[in-house]
Amino acid sequence: MFRRDTTAEACFRLDVRTWLEANLPPALRNRTTRPLPDELMPWYHALSRKGWIAPHWSQKYGGMGATLNEQIIMTEELGRIGAPHLPVQGLNHIGPILMEFANEAQKARHLPPILAGTVIWAQGYSEPGAGSDLASLTTRAVLEGDHFVVNGQKIWTTWGHHSDWMFALVRTDPQAQPRQAGISFLLIDLHSPGIRIRPIKTIAGDDEFSEVFFDDVRVPAENLVGKLHDGWRIANALLGHERLATSNPQFSLMALERIKIMARASGIMADPAFQDRLAAISINVTALAALFSHAVELTNEQRSPGPESSIIKIFGSELLQDLNVLLVEAAGGLATVDRPIETEFGEVDVATPFLQARRVTIYGGSSEIQRNVVARRVLNLPN
Ligand SMILES: Cc1cc2nc3c(=O)[nH]c(=O)nc-3n(C[C@H](O)[C@H](O)[C@H](O)COP(=O)(O)OP(=O)(O)OC[C@H]3O[C@@H](n4cnc5c(N)ncnc54)[C@H](O)[C@@H]3O)c2cc1C
Fold this sequence. Notes:
Layout: H1 7-23, H2 37-50, H3 68-81, H4 89-101, H5 104-116, E1 121-124, E2 140-144, E3 147-158, E4 165-171, E5 183-189, E6 195-200, E7 209-220, E8 224-225, H6 231-246, H7 250-266, H8 272-302, H9 308-331, E9 341-343, E10 346-348, H10 351-356, H11 367-378
Parallel strand pairs: 1-4
Antiparallel strand pairs: 2-3, 3-7, 4-5, 5-8, 6-7, 9-10
Helix pairs in contact: 1-3, 3-7, 4-5, 4-6, 6-9, 7-8, 7-9, 8-9, 9-11
């Protein structure tokens, strides 16, 4: 978008585009909610068989080991064709964390099924009393012999009811001060006895997340990642990956395309004031792509993203909300319907992405919390 492909990159782009056109089922294109696993996972498996499921993973762990530009080309081409939102907790969140913090046995056991798409992961951080103030979490894990016994509850667990495993933050030392020093990072098989999962519907009407209850759940001690009580450091490294990955410009690119179709269909595209706003927001999407590539470059060098992941999370998530506001304006009077709008250029769903975009400034740490991080870690302002 903001740079020119070399000859080799142009060939790679053409390969990606041709393969996506030939292999991504039309029914999975431009979906505004995430399809259910039965429909979505065959697409994950197809990308996996092609070797393109993990462009950012090194070849050592079975990834594509793609260059930064190749990763950006993949993102742009997936956005261009309107590829669906995959379950990324394995690929983008726990995968890179296992590579950095897990022992060899844990890597050998858990990384290949993520690539193959035979195991789906969920993130167990938030609790009813612990969201922004994550260190106040109370789900308890007590070491008894060679097992932890886990009791408590997680909430807002994305795809929890479709997942096989959860990476969870648990309290292993309730007396520790500061509170962060009593937290451990545990891998929990969600098919274990004592686990109950209840889906929660979102404002957009999809069952995206769930509540997960633990009642005397026995978890083998070998599922501890890192050292006992040292989970906070790992949790924060993972949040950096999450903030960066969720700011991927693919969804902003898709939103921009949706606006253009809607604006042509409603006629507002001819309005110079609208054109100005569209130009301004297009520039911001280009800026996000540039910011994203810079952050990925830094991450490739340092392994874990730094505070730049907070900056990009604020910019990327607030931009996606602005894009969806402009989409509603592009639809004008038609925007009041809660189903896709038929236009001469194809169907455009306005209501669902608008409602869904409300969530993006909350998950992975809200915009307010990201601004606190930037204030402390970038600007060195006092607490
Ligand atoms: C779509 C979606 C998917 C999610 N998926 C997962 C998941 O898979 N796993 C998981 O563990 N969690 C998940 N979450 C939960 C998410 O991480 C939390 O919602 C988030 O951290 C905010 O916590 P909270 O909801 O408890 O809000 P609260 O922490 O109660 O915050 C409420 C409001 O107060 C503001 N606020 C709080 N503290 C401060 C402060 N110190 N300074 C300024 N403002 C403040 C917040 O910004 C927010 O606006 C998901 C959330 C959403 C919306």
